[in-house]
Specification:
By secondary structure, the chain is an alpha+beta fold. It has helices at residues 27-45, 56-65, 86-101, and strands spanning 6-11, 19-24, 68-75, 80-84. It is globular, with a radius of gyration of 14 Å.
Length: 102
Amino acid sequence: MANRHTIILMQTSQNRSTRTFMDYESISQAMDGICALYERKLRELSPAMRNITYDIEDLYNFIDGLADMSALVYDHSIQAYLPNDRQWIRQRMFSHLRKLAH
């Protein structure tokens, strides 16, 4: 499960021109990428802050505040990408951050 190529599809606003994607070598790297995206957003909003802190609810609010976010995860057994919704991303994010905390 660790090395499953993952593509994050996202749209930041209702404007279709904000559609973009990010691809990662694993689900874990994709979760790190979403955190980094959120942290960049926080730095843009508060450039004077040296240390940025947030909790899981803040991250969930960021994910939910996007017009759209989903993940395509490669499944080697069927040699295809399987779609996953925002709720799946939230669940994986929780598991990922819990592992990092321990």
